[in-house]
Amino acid sequence: MMDSNQASTGTVVAEPEPIELNWSTTALVVIDMQRDFLEPGGFGESLGNDVSRLGSAVGPIASVLAAARAMGMLVIHTREGHLPDLSDVPRAKLRRGAPSLRIGDPGPMGRILIRGEPGHDIISELYPLDGEIVIDKAGKGAFYATELGDILRKGGIENLLVCGVTTEVCVNTTVREANDRGYRCVVIADGCASYFPEFHDMGLKMIKAQGGIFGWVADSAAVLKAMQAETTNIV
Ligand code: TIU
Question: FRET label pair with 180: which of 34, 107, 173, 216, CA 20 to 30 Å apart?
Answer without folding.
Answer: 34
